[in-house]
Amino acid sequence: MEGRVKIVGQVERVDGNSLTYAEFVDRFMAPNLPVVLTGLTSSWRAREDWTLPIPSDRRLPDLSFFARNFPSPLVQVADCSSREFTDQKRLEMSMQEFIGHWVGDAHGGSNDGDRDGSLLYLKDWHFVKEYPDYIAYTTPVFFVDDWLNMYLDNHPIHRDSDIANHKNEINCSDYRFVYMGAKGTWTSLHADVFRSYSWSANVCGRKQWLFLSPSQSHRIFDRNMRSSIYNLNDDVSEKHFPEFNKTEWLECIQENNEIIFVPSGWYHQVHNLEDTISINHNWFNAYNLHWVWNLLYEDYKVAKEYIEDIRDICDDFEGLCQRNLAANTGMNFYDFFVFIVRFALANAIELYHLQQSEVATFSTKTAHHFIYNLTSIRNVASKMITTEAFTTENLCRISEDNRSAFSNVKQILEEESFRRLLMTLSKAYEHIDRGQSDCLQSWTSYPKGCWSVICLKSDCTVVDHITSLIDEVCGPEDLQKLIDSALSDG
Fold first, then answer.
1. Residues 147-160: pLDDT tens digits?
2. Which of 243, 214, 270, 233 has its CA nearest to residue 5?
3. What domains does the chain contain, in order, with CATH numbers?
4. How far is CA 99 from CA 61, 96, 182, 445, in A?
5. C-alpha closest to that of 78 among 113, 109, 51
6. Quick one: DSSP state of residue 25?
7. Is the overall model pTM greater than 0.85, yes or no?
8. Residue 82: what pLDDT?
9. For the segment 106-153, what is each residue's pLDDT rounded down to a tens digit?
10. For the chain, how long is the longest CA-to-CA vector?
11. How many CA atoms lie within 13 A of 187 on its CB side?
12. Which whole-number Å values give the CA distances from 157 to 35, 428, 456, in the listed order?
């Protein structure tokens, strides 16, 4: 592959134990740059349970362990040797069938796991959701500010019944995955879902990554910016992709037990150089929230343009656009608005508690998280105001499920699902700022009146305080007002 692309540098490699969270933010997350982190997986149960030792201090997947202990009825498998539209062909099979194929390859197939023309790679296995009591790993502190999975652990991504029944609802139950593939399996050129960040840890095996900066991403698209290059190993047509020869790539050879941070909007192609198991999360937070909105807006424009000719005969043209956007991208404007309203409320609550604290626990550093988060949400909300989806007429058309999910502030604050979200967010920042080893555990109940870890009052009145700032969020303008009040409060 190196001969087909111009590699101009290597991804930086850093000892994760010598890096502070603030340094990670300043050097990599905020400037949106990739990095390999070492030394963070030594305590993971997955290292021992999922692998077998071989000479030279390397390890191989213990396939029989998976067959015995994780008999998932259906897993999603990509056939790396077969393209279907813009991705590899996807299959569903049992874990036993997948492992039987892999073991059969090892004993009777070629060295790269290719048998009968198929090259199978287990992808997007929702391991944490399927086996919540088996703690295979702990998320490194650099990645715990994960709004996407915090939200999906407590809320559905869609609330409209005609969208929620879509097959995507199963696939977006969370974005924590296990990948397993033999040497030679690979993932085609892509940027991650929602333009999220991702982190990927090799439990065993080695991978080659090739990265393209977002500033060059237009060069892998055709003249119409509609289709992108699928495989960097193919002969890329200069006629169809005239800018491709100008691209400059970063390379990374990710070793066993290393974790790679993949920033937003970086296109990448990945090859397994050995039999490999990896743990992967997609996630976003205040630092890349604008990437998520920009993707939704660009995909919305495409969905809208595609059906513009039926606007005059469509009873709910905007609703149709939003349903298509949800089907194509995995989320629509209303799903996203519910999401950011709830995170705005959670961050406003945390900031209020810090400001009202009666003991010397007020931390400027901790407060900075919540102020930055609220400011980021406000900036995105300001871009939503002028969209057609949030006109008064179109807001009147949306379902009651969607409207009540963002409008009635008191109802939201009293929902069990929101309180669990608040607790998880609160614990995440405790973990970031204080390094407490136990603060990412799950609690089913909390002894105080409020579920924030930084609240010391059993008779907390934060619900009354927040509803005094605003009692109803009817659209992006109201969300801005709520945030402005929260930031000026105290």
1. 999 999 999 999 88
2. 233
3. 7-143+175-283 (2.60.120.650), 289-488 (no CATH)
4. 11, 5, 10, 40
5. 113
6. I
7. yes
8. 95
9. 554 444 544 455 799 999 999 999 999 999 999 999 999 999 999 999
10. 70
11. 22
12. 30, 21, 32
